[in-house]
Structure formats: structure tokens, C-alpha cells
Amino acid sequence: ELPHLDTITGVADPGQVQGSEIVMRVPPLPERPFDSASHAPALHPQQRVTKPAQQQFEIIGVLSKLYVLMENAKGLVLVDQHAAHERVLFEELRRRMEQQGVPTQKLLLPQTFDVLPRDADWIEQNLSVLQKMGIGIESFGPDTFKIDSLPSFLDVSDAAQFMRKVIDDLKSASNSASPMRLGEEMIAKSVCRHAVKANDPLRYREVEKLIRDLLDCDLPYCCPHGRPTMIQISLAELEKKFGRKI
Predict the structure, then answer these.
(1) pTM higher than 0.85 for the full model?
(2) Which segments of 14-139 are extended strands (E)?
(3) Within a domain: residue 158?
(4) What is the domain range of residue 80?
(5) Does residue 156 contact residue 133 with C-beta atoms inside 8 Å?
(6) Is residue 144 part of a domain?
């Protein structure tokens, strides 16, 4: 099971987030990370964000049990706690998949399924990659395979049907697609139900760790689905809203 913030922190703290208790040094936000007409792509398997010089952020509270409020030199920063946790979990599982494979769960009853010869060839060529994705699959005769385990973060009732869909998805994808990319898409779809939700009250240390983990991600400014994890509201924008500047 994926870690929740409660288990990640490992520290009991009865207090909720109140006031500004800590100053953190994290990378600055881009000037305009997102706008209504353009969102970041959902997945960036090879992209890495170069972390710029750090600046100070100060956590000042949580709005509506969803948005972490922080202050920096440019103004106000709002972080969506759900989108942020999705990004953290996504990169953690992707890292596991790239290094030693994702956590798996044994099926109560292994399932066998038959495929077309051309699909059997594809599976045979990609067995090691599929196993890194957490799919326990092996040959079980001519054009027949056995599945005995699946990624623990998936909720699958029919393993054979799931495997056929994996094959179909990959074959219908673009030429640049790969089993590893498909594994990323599986992770992206699953982390939503494991991440903290709106209205989930977080203790201060949980918020602090979430922000630190987020800014340590390769792509911290959007969730795996492409939605922004944080936005910057500049002092100039606030002054304009309050009629201090024209």
C-alpha cells in the first residue's frame, strides 16, 4: 500500500497548521508556470527540471483544508495539497520502477490467458520490463501466459482482461511509447486515490514534509495529470487588486 503522509512523517504532532512557524529554503517558482490556455504535459519520462538558486518561502497556513499558503519575496504562493502529494507519490513509484520495480501483490488465484502469436512475441520481448512494472507474468505454453501478481497500487478484478488492455494500449500508442511509459501512465492513474484529498486536515509537520518532498521532485510544478501544483500571486497583482497601483 502506498504511504500516506501520516506514515511518511513518522512523527505525532497534535497541532494543525497555524501561523508562520518556519522558514524554508526551496527553489523559486517560474514567473508564469501555468495559465488557462496551457497546461504542462501529463508525463515527462526523461525531463528533469534544473533547480535554480534557492529563495525563502514561509509557510503561513492552510486555506479551506486544501491550499497551503506560503509567502516569498515576490508575494503569495498557493500549493494544492492533493496535486502536490500526487506528484510526490508518482515520482517515488516511478523511481522504484526504474530502479528495482514497483511493489507487487500476489493474486489469490493465478490467471492464464491466450493471445495472438504477434502479441505473444511482443510479451516475450518485454517480459523483463513488464516485471519491473509490477506485473508477474511468464510463458505458460504456446501463445499462453500466466499472471500471478500485479502492482499493489492497482485495483484489478480481472488480471487477464487488464493484461490485454495493457497490450492494446501500447500497440495503439504513438511510436515513441514504450512499456516503461505505459508503466508511468498506470502509476499516474493510481496515485490520485492514494494522495491526500481536499478537506484532509494535515498537521504542521506533514505540511512541511509535503512541501519539502514536492520541491525535491524532478517536475514539482504540476501533478502527473498536468494540473498545477502551485501558483504564484505577485505583490504587484495584490496591489493592483487593492487599488494601490494602476
Answers:
(1) no
(2) 23-26, 55-63, 67-72, 75-80, 104-114, 136-139
(3) yes
(4) 5-96+193-241
(5) no
(6) yes
